Amino acid sequence: MTTVEYEYDARRLRMQTLLVLRWVAIAGQTAACLGVYFILGFDFPVGLCFVFITASATLNIGMRYGTPRSFRLGDVEAAVLLGYDIIQLGFLLYLTGGLTNSFAMLFLTPVIISSVSLPSKLTLLLGIVMIAVATVLAGEYYPLPWYHDEKLSFPLLYRAGIWAALALSAAFIGIYAARVSDEARLLADALAATELVLEREQHLSQLDGLAAAAAHELGTPLATITLIIKELLKSAPENAQALRDDLALLAQEAARCREILGKLASLGATDQSAVMNLLSIDTLIQEVVEPQRESGVEIEVSKNGPPDAPVLARNPAILYGLGNLVENAMDFANSLVKIDAWWSPSYVTISIQDDGPGFSPDILDRLGDPYLRGRPTERRTKSDPDSGLGLGLFIAKTLLERSGAIVETTNVSPPRTGAIIKITWPRTALEPAAARTKLVDQDK
After folding, report:
1. How far is C-alpha 191 from the geometric centre of its chain's CA atoms?
2. Quick one: which of 335, 326, 282 has its CA closest to 304?
Protein backbone atom coordinates (compact mmCIF):
# COMPACT_ATOMS: atom_id res chain seq x y z
CA MET A 1 0.00 0.00 0.00
CA THR A 2 1.44 3.37 -0.99
CA THR A 3 1.64 6.41 1.30
CA VAL A 4 -1.19 8.14 -0.59
CA GLU A 5 -3.41 5.06 -0.29
CA TYR A 6 -2.63 4.79 3.42
CA GLU A 7 -3.51 8.41 4.10
CA TYR A 8 -6.72 8.07 2.08
CA ASP A 9 -7.73 4.89 3.91
CA ALA A 10 -7.00 6.44 7.31
CA ARG A 11 -9.31 9.35 6.48
CA ARG A 12 -12.34 7.20 5.64
CA LEU A 13 -15.21 7.16 8.12
CA ARG A 14 -15.56 3.97 10.15
CA MET A 15 -19.00 2.33 10.03
CA GLN A 16 -19.09 1.74 13.80
CA THR A 17 -18.52 5.44 14.48
CA LEU A 18 -21.47 6.45 12.32
CA LEU A 19 -23.71 3.80 13.89
CA VAL A 20 -22.91 4.96 17.44
CA LEU A 21 -23.62 8.58 16.54
CA ARG A 22 -26.93 7.63 14.95
CA TRP A 23 -27.97 5.57 18.00
CA VAL A 24 -27.31 8.64 20.14
CA ALA A 25 -29.48 10.69 17.78
CA ILE A 26 -32.26 8.07 17.87
CA ALA A 27 -32.20 8.01 21.68
CA GLY A 28 -32.40 11.81 21.81
CA GLN A 29 -35.24 11.96 19.29
CA THR A 30 -37.18 9.30 21.18
CA ALA A 31 -36.71 11.04 24.54
CA ALA A 32 -37.73 14.41 23.09
CA CYS A 33 -40.91 13.07 21.45
CA LEU A 34 -42.02 11.11 24.52
CA GLY A 35 -41.22 13.98 26.86
CA VAL A 36 -43.13 16.56 24.82
CA TYR A 37 -46.16 14.29 24.26
CA PHE A 38 -46.54 12.62 27.65
CA ILE A 39 -44.84 14.95 30.14
CA LEU A 40 -45.60 18.37 28.67
CA GLY A 41 -48.88 17.17 27.20
CA PHE A 42 -48.44 18.90 23.83
CA ASP A 43 -50.31 17.42 20.88
CA PHE A 44 -48.41 16.68 17.65
CA PRO A 45 -48.19 13.75 15.15
CA VAL A 46 -46.13 11.59 17.49
CA GLY A 47 -47.01 8.39 15.60
CA LEU A 48 -45.58 9.71 12.33
CA CYS A 49 -42.48 10.90 14.17
CA PHE A 50 -41.87 7.38 15.45
CA VAL A 51 -42.22 6.04 11.91
CA PHE A 52 -39.10 8.01 10.90
CA ILE A 53 -37.31 7.20 14.16
CA THR A 54 -38.02 3.50 13.65
CA ALA A 55 -36.77 3.74 10.06
CA SER A 56 -33.41 5.03 11.33
CA ALA A 57 -33.23 2.31 13.99
CA THR A 58 -34.02 -0.38 11.39
CA LEU A 59 -31.33 0.98 9.07
CA ASN A 60 -28.83 0.97 11.92
CA ILE A 61 -29.60 -2.64 12.83
CA GLY A 62 -29.29 -3.75 9.22
CA MET A 63 -25.97 -1.97 8.78
CA ARG A 64 -24.67 -3.34 12.10
CA TYR A 65 -25.30 -6.98 11.18
CA GLY A 66 -24.48 -6.56 7.51
CA THR A 67 -20.94 -5.25 7.92
CA PRO A 68 -18.00 -5.91 10.29
CA ARG A 69 -17.20 -3.41 13.05
CA SER A 70 -13.94 -2.37 11.41
CA PHE A 71 -15.52 -1.67 7.99
CA ARG A 72 -14.72 1.77 6.62
CA LEU A 73 -17.20 3.49 4.36
CA GLY A 74 -16.32 4.90 1.00
CA ASP A 75 -16.72 8.65 0.56
CA VAL A 76 -19.90 8.39 -1.49
CA GLU A 77 -21.43 5.79 0.85
CA ALA A 78 -20.73 7.96 3.90
CA ALA A 79 -22.15 11.03 2.14
CA VAL A 80 -25.36 9.15 1.26
CA LEU A 81 -25.84 8.04 4.89
CA LEU A 82 -25.21 11.54 6.21
CA GLY A 83 -27.61 12.89 3.61
CA TYR A 84 -30.23 10.43 4.86
CA ASP A 85 -29.72 11.76 8.40
CA ILE A 86 -30.39 15.31 7.17
CA ILE A 87 -33.60 14.27 5.39
CA GLN A 88 -34.80 12.15 8.35
CA LEU A 89 -34.27 15.09 10.71
CA GLY A 90 -36.06 17.31 8.18
CA PHE A 91 -39.19 15.09 8.33
CA LEU A 92 -39.17 15.16 12.14
CA LEU A 93 -38.84 18.94 12.16
CA TYR A 94 -41.60 19.24 9.55
CA LEU A 95 -43.94 17.47 11.99
CA THR A 96 -42.82 19.55 14.99
CA GLY A 97 -42.59 23.20 13.97
CA GLY A 98 -40.03 23.40 11.16
CA LEU A 99 -37.27 25.96 11.71
CA THR A 100 -39.14 27.36 14.71
CA ASN A 101 -38.19 24.15 16.56
CA SER A 102 -35.04 24.79 18.59
CA PHE A 103 -33.67 21.38 17.59
CA ALA A 104 -33.20 22.67 14.02
CA MET A 105 -29.57 23.38 14.95
CA LEU A 106 -28.97 19.60 14.75
CA PHE A 107 -28.88 20.08 10.98
CA LEU A 108 -25.25 21.12 11.50
CA THR A 109 -24.17 17.71 12.84
CA PRO A 110 -23.96 15.75 9.54
CA VAL A 111 -22.20 18.68 7.85
CA ILE A 112 -19.57 18.85 10.61
CA ILE A 113 -19.00 15.07 10.46
CA SER A 114 -18.57 15.32 6.70
CA SER A 115 -16.14 18.25 6.95
CA VAL A 116 -13.70 16.25 9.09
CA SER A 117 -13.96 12.95 7.22
CA LEU A 118 -15.05 13.52 3.62
CA PRO A 119 -13.71 15.51 0.64
CA SER A 120 -14.76 19.14 0.42
CA LYS A 121 -16.94 18.56 -2.67
CA LEU A 122 -19.13 16.05 -0.84
CA THR A 123 -19.30 18.33 2.21
CA LEU A 124 -20.44 21.16 -0.05
CA LEU A 125 -23.10 18.89 -1.55
CA LEU A 126 -24.38 17.94 1.93
CA GLY A 127 -24.43 21.62 2.85
CA ILE A 128 -26.60 22.34 -0.19
CA VAL A 129 -28.95 19.49 0.78
CA MET A 130 -29.21 20.87 4.32
CA ILE A 131 -29.95 24.39 3.08
CA ALA A 132 -32.56 23.05 0.63
CA VAL A 133 -34.35 21.13 3.42
CA ALA A 134 -34.15 24.17 5.71
CA THR A 135 -35.61 26.36 2.96
CA VAL A 136 -38.64 24.08 2.66
CA LEU A 137 -39.07 24.02 6.45
CA ALA A 138 -38.97 27.82 6.60
CA GLY A 139 -42.34 27.95 4.83
CA GLU A 140 -43.99 24.52 5.19
CA TYR A 141 -44.37 22.77 8.57
CA TYR A 142 -46.81 21.60 11.19
CA PRO A 143 -47.31 24.11 14.01
CA LEU A 144 -44.84 23.97 16.86
CA PRO A 145 -46.35 21.87 19.71
CA TRP A 146 -47.73 24.30 22.31
CA TYR A 147 -50.58 24.97 24.74
CA HIS A 148 -54.08 24.82 23.17
CA ASP A 149 -55.19 28.12 24.63
CA GLU A 150 -52.11 30.02 23.39
CA LYS A 151 -51.30 30.74 19.77
CA LEU A 152 -47.69 31.09 18.69
CA SER A 153 -46.84 33.20 15.66
CA PHE A 154 -43.39 33.32 14.05
CA PRO A 155 -43.06 35.95 11.31
CA LEU A 156 -41.26 35.17 8.09
CA LEU A 157 -38.39 37.48 9.02
CA TYR A 158 -37.74 35.44 12.17
CA ARG A 159 -37.74 32.16 10.21
CA ALA A 160 -35.48 33.72 7.58
CA GLY A 161 -33.08 34.70 10.35
CA ILE A 162 -32.92 31.11 11.60
CA TRP A 163 -32.37 29.92 8.03
CA ALA A 164 -29.50 32.40 7.58
CA ALA A 165 -28.00 31.38 10.93
CA LEU A 166 -28.04 27.71 9.90
CA ALA A 167 -26.49 28.43 6.50
CA LEU A 168 -23.72 30.66 7.89
CA SER A 169 -23.03 28.31 10.82
CA ALA A 170 -22.75 25.33 8.47
CA ALA A 171 -20.27 27.23 6.27
CA PHE A 172 -18.15 28.61 9.12
CA ILE A 173 -18.09 25.52 11.35
CA GLY A 174 -17.58 23.21 8.37
CA ILE A 175 -14.58 25.16 7.06
CA TYR A 176 -13.12 25.55 10.54
CA ALA A 177 -13.51 21.86 11.39
CA ALA A 178 -12.04 20.82 8.03
CA ARG A 179 -8.99 23.04 8.51
CA VAL A 180 -8.35 21.83 12.05
CA SER A 181 -8.81 18.20 11.00
CA ASP A 182 -6.47 18.57 8.00
CA GLU A 183 -3.78 20.27 10.08
CA ALA A 184 -3.99 17.60 12.76
CA ARG A 185 -3.81 14.86 10.12
CA LEU A 186 -0.84 16.47 8.36
CA LEU A 187 0.93 16.96 11.66
CA ALA A 188 0.39 13.32 12.56
CA ASP A 189 1.70 12.20 9.15
CA ALA A 190 4.75 14.44 9.48
CA LEU A 191 5.50 13.17 12.98
CA ALA A 192 5.16 9.62 11.69
CA ALA A 193 7.68 10.42 8.95
CA THR A 194 10.03 11.87 11.58
CA GLU A 195 9.74 8.72 13.65
CA LEU A 196 10.53 6.65 10.55
CA VAL A 197 13.73 8.65 10.04
CA LEU A 198 14.80 8.06 13.64
CA GLU A 199 13.80 4.41 13.44
CA ARG A 200 15.90 4.00 10.29
CA GLU A 201 18.94 5.49 12.01
CA GLN A 202 18.41 3.25 15.02
CA HIS A 203 18.01 0.25 12.74
CA LEU A 204 21.32 1.06 11.06
CA SER A 205 23.00 1.25 14.46
CA GLN A 206 21.52 -2.14 15.37
CA LEU A 207 22.83 -3.57 12.10
CA ASP A 208 26.30 -2.35 13.07
CA GLY A 209 26.02 -4.25 16.34
CA LEU A 210 24.78 -7.37 14.59
CA ALA A 211 27.66 -7.16 12.12
CA ALA A 212 30.16 -6.89 14.97
CA ALA A 213 28.58 -9.85 16.76
CA ALA A 214 28.66 -11.92 13.56
CA ALA A 215 32.31 -11.01 13.01
CA HIS A 216 33.15 -12.11 16.55
CA GLU A 217 31.32 -15.44 16.17
CA LEU A 218 32.88 -16.19 12.78
CA GLY A 219 36.39 -15.31 13.92
CA THR A 220 37.02 -18.61 15.74
CA PRO A 221 36.00 -21.03 12.95
CA LEU A 222 37.87 -18.89 10.40
CA ALA A 223 41.03 -19.09 12.54
CA THR A 224 40.64 -22.89 12.62
CA ILE A 225 40.26 -23.00 8.83
CA THR A 226 43.40 -20.87 8.42
CA LEU A 227 45.38 -23.19 10.73
CA ILE A 228 44.27 -26.31 8.82
CA ILE A 229 45.23 -24.68 5.49
CA LYS A 230 48.74 -23.97 6.83
CA GLU A 231 49.11 -27.57 8.01
CA LEU A 232 47.93 -28.87 4.64
CA LEU A 233 50.46 -26.66 2.88
CA LYS A 234 53.25 -28.08 5.02
CA SER A 235 52.22 -31.67 4.36
CA ALA A 236 51.48 -31.28 0.65
CA PRO A 237 53.97 -33.05 -1.68
CA GLU A 238 56.44 -30.79 -3.45
CA ASN A 239 55.51 -32.22 -6.84
CA ALA A 240 51.75 -31.55 -6.36
CA GLN A 241 51.95 -27.95 -7.59
CA ALA A 242 48.26 -27.68 -8.49
CA LEU A 243 47.25 -28.71 -4.98
CA ARG A 244 49.70 -26.28 -3.42
CA ASP A 245 48.39 -23.47 -5.61
CA ASP A 246 44.82 -24.21 -4.52
CA LEU A 247 45.84 -24.26 -0.86
CA ALA A 248 47.71 -20.95 -1.29
CA LEU A 249 44.61 -19.44 -2.84
CA LEU A 250 42.50 -20.72 0.08
CA ALA A 251 44.98 -19.16 2.52
CA GLN A 252 44.80 -15.85 0.65
CA GLU A 253 41.00 -15.84 0.66
CA ALA A 254 40.89 -16.79 4.35
CA ALA A 255 43.15 -13.83 5.10
CA ARG A 256 40.82 -11.61 3.12
CA CYS A 257 37.85 -12.91 5.10
CA ARG A 258 39.65 -12.09 8.36
CA GLU A 259 40.26 -8.56 7.10
CA ILE A 260 36.56 -8.14 6.22
CA LEU A 261 35.50 -9.48 9.63
CA GLY A 262 37.85 -7.01 11.28
CA LYS A 263 36.10 -4.14 9.50
CA LEU A 264 32.70 -5.50 10.50
CA ALA A 265 33.80 -5.76 14.12
CA SER A 266 34.73 -2.07 14.11
CA LEU A 267 31.11 -1.15 13.28
CA GLY A 268 29.87 -2.32 16.64
CA ALA A 269 31.31 0.51 18.71
CA THR A 270 27.94 1.61 20.05
CA ASP A 271 29.22 3.01 23.33
CA GLN A 272 28.33 6.68 23.18
CA SER A 273 31.26 7.56 25.43
CA ALA A 274 33.78 5.85 23.11
CA VAL A 275 36.22 8.20 21.39
CA MET A 276 35.14 7.05 17.92
CA ASN A 277 31.61 8.22 18.75
CA LEU A 278 32.64 11.71 19.80
CA LEU A 279 32.58 14.64 17.40
CA SER A 280 34.26 18.00 17.60
CA ILE A 281 32.33 20.90 16.11
CA ASP A 282 34.75 20.87 13.18
CA THR A 283 34.14 17.17 12.47
CA LEU A 284 30.39 17.65 12.79
CA ILE A 285 30.34 20.37 10.15
CA GLN A 286 32.67 18.38 7.90
CA GLU A 287 30.40 15.30 7.99
CA VAL A 288 27.39 17.47 7.12
CA VAL A 289 29.12 19.42 4.34
CA GLU A 290 31.17 16.76 2.54
CA PRO A 291 28.22 15.01 0.79
CA GLN A 292 27.28 18.39 -0.76
CA ARG A 293 30.71 19.39 -2.09
CA GLU A 294 30.03 18.13 -5.63
CA SER A 295 26.79 20.06 -6.11
CA GLY A 296 28.44 22.99 -7.93
CA VAL A 297 27.75 25.55 -5.18
CA GLU A 298 30.64 26.96 -3.16
CA ILE A 299 30.53 26.21 0.58
CA GLU A 300 32.30 28.59 2.94
CA VAL A 301 32.83 27.43 6.53
CA SER A 302 33.97 29.58 9.44
CA LYS A 303 34.38 28.78 13.15
CA ASN A 304 34.84 31.21 16.01
CA GLY A 305 35.03 30.83 19.76
CA PRO A 306 37.32 30.19 22.72
CA PRO A 307 39.94 27.43 22.50
CA ASP A 308 37.77 24.87 24.28
CA ALA A 309 35.69 23.96 21.23
CA PRO A 310 32.54 21.91 21.96
CA VAL A 311 32.59 18.12 21.71
CA LEU A 312 29.40 16.09 21.37
CA ALA A 313 28.38 12.46 21.17
CA ARG A 314 27.51 11.30 17.67
CA ASN A 315 23.78 11.92 17.26
CA PRO A 316 22.04 10.74 14.05
CA ALA A 317 19.19 13.21 14.65
CA ILE A 318 21.56 16.20 14.67
CA LEU A 319 23.50 14.93 11.65
CA TYR A 320 20.33 14.33 9.67
CA GLY A 321 18.72 17.62 10.67
CA LEU A 322 21.78 19.74 9.83
CA GLY A 323 22.35 17.79 6.62
CA ASN A 324 18.77 18.42 5.52
CA LEU A 325 19.10 22.18 6.14
CA VAL A 326 22.43 22.37 4.30
CA GLU A 327 20.99 20.42 1.36
CA ASN A 328 18.00 22.76 1.27
CA ALA A 329 20.33 25.80 1.24
CA MET A 330 22.34 24.24 -1.61
CA ASP A 331 19.14 23.76 -3.63
CA PHE A 332 18.18 27.44 -3.40
CA ALA A 333 21.61 29.10 -3.44
CA ASN A 334 22.83 30.90 -6.55
CA SER A 335 26.54 30.37 -5.96
CA LEU A 336 27.42 30.38 -2.25
CA VAL A 337 26.38 28.78 1.05
CA LYS A 338 27.99 30.05 4.25
CA ILE A 339 28.13 27.90 7.38
CA ASP A 340 29.24 29.79 10.48
CA ALA A 341 29.78 28.16 13.85
CA TRP A 342 30.53 30.03 17.05
CA TRP A 343 30.46 29.04 20.67
CA SER A 344 30.82 30.35 24.17
CA PRO A 345 30.98 28.62 27.58
CA SER A 346 27.14 28.61 27.59
CA TYR A 347 25.92 28.25 24.00
CA VAL A 348 26.79 26.70 20.62
CA THR A 349 25.35 28.22 17.44
CA ILE A 350 25.50 27.09 13.80
CA SER A 351 24.21 29.42 11.09
CA ILE A 352 23.42 28.29 7.51
CA GLN A 353 23.10 31.11 4.97
CA ASP A 354 22.57 31.03 1.21
CA ASP A 355 22.53 33.73 -1.46
CA GLY A 356 19.29 32.59 -3.08
CA PRO A 357 15.93 34.41 -3.25
CA GLY A 358 15.24 33.96 0.47
CA PHE A 359 11.97 33.07 2.14
CA SER A 360 8.76 34.74 1.01
CA PRO A 361 7.36 37.08 3.71
CA ASP A 362 4.03 35.27 3.32
CA ILE A 363 5.42 32.01 4.70
CA LEU A 364 8.33 33.18 6.85
CA ASP A 365 6.35 32.93 10.09
CA ARG A 366 4.95 29.50 9.08
CA LEU A 367 8.23 27.78 8.27
CA GLY A 368 8.50 24.48 10.08
CA ASP A 369 4.83 23.58 9.63
CA PRO A 370 4.40 20.18 7.94
CA TYR A 371 3.47 20.05 4.24
CA LEU A 372 3.79 23.81 3.80
CA ARG A 373 3.10 24.91 0.23
CA GLY A 374 4.13 28.26 -1.10
CA ARG A 375 2.95 30.67 -3.76
CA PRO A 376 4.65 30.91 -7.14
CA THR A 377 6.99 33.65 -5.86
CA GLU A 378 8.36 31.55 -3.03
CA ARG A 379 11.51 29.44 -2.81
CA ARG A 380 11.69 26.51 -5.19
CA THR A 381 14.29 23.88 -5.84
CA LYS A 382 16.37 23.90 -8.98
CA SER A 383 15.44 20.36 -9.89
CA ASP A 384 11.74 20.63 -9.11
CA PRO A 385 10.23 24.08 -9.71
CA ASP A 386 6.86 22.90 -8.39
CA SER A 387 8.16 21.80 -5.01
CA GLY A 388 7.55 23.63 -1.76
CA LEU A 389 9.08 23.74 1.67
CA GLY A 390 7.36 21.55 4.18
CA LEU A 391 7.95 18.04 5.39
CA GLY A 392 11.76 18.08 5.02
CA LEU A 393 12.14 21.31 6.95
CA PHE A 394 9.61 20.12 9.52
CA ILE A 395 11.56 16.90 10.12
CA ALA A 396 14.87 18.74 10.37
CA LYS A 397 13.43 21.32 12.77
CA THR A 398 11.76 18.63 14.89
CA LEU A 399 14.93 16.53 15.14
CA LEU A 400 17.08 19.50 16.08
CA GLU A 401 14.59 20.78 18.65
CA ARG A 402 14.46 17.34 20.23
CA SER A 403 18.22 17.60 20.76
CA GLY A 404 17.65 20.82 22.72
CA ALA A 405 18.17 23.37 19.94
CA ILE A 406 16.27 26.55 19.11
CA VAL A 407 15.79 26.94 15.32
CA GLU A 408 15.27 30.44 13.89
CA THR A 409 14.58 31.33 10.24
CA THR A 410 15.13 34.82 8.80
CA ASN A 411 16.10 36.55 5.56
CA VAL A 412 19.27 38.44 4.78
CA SER A 413 18.92 42.20 5.19
CA PRO A 414 18.30 44.10 1.90
CA PRO A 415 19.69 44.93 -0.60
CA ARG A 416 21.25 41.44 -0.48
CA THR A 417 19.07 38.36 -0.83
CA GLY A 418 19.19 34.99 0.84
CA ALA A 419 17.92 32.98 3.78
CA ILE A 420 19.47 32.34 7.18
CA ILE A 421 18.69 29.42 9.48
CA LYS A 422 20.28 29.69 12.92
CA ILE A 423 20.44 26.72 15.28
CA THR A 424 21.40 27.38 18.90
CA TRP A 425 21.99 24.79 21.64
CA PRO A 426 22.70 25.26 25.32
CA ARG A 427 26.19 23.85 25.59
CA THR A 428 25.18 21.59 28.47
CA ALA A 429 22.51 19.96 26.27
CA LEU A 430 24.79 19.47 23.26
CA GLU A 431 28.01 18.47 25.00
CA PRO A 432 27.98 15.67 27.59
CA ALA A 433 30.57 16.44 30.26
CA ALA A 434 31.77 12.83 30.43
CA ALA A 435 32.31 12.71 26.66
CA ARG A 436 34.42 15.85 26.65
CA THR A 437 36.55 14.64 29.57
CA LYS A 438 37.28 11.36 27.80
CA LEU A 439 38.29 13.10 24.56
CA VAL A 440 40.56 15.52 26.39
CA ASP A 441 42.22 12.66 28.26
CA GLN A 442 42.71 10.82 24.95
CA ASP A 443 44.40 13.89 23.40
CA LYS A 444 46.82 14.00 26.33
Report:
1. 4
2. 282
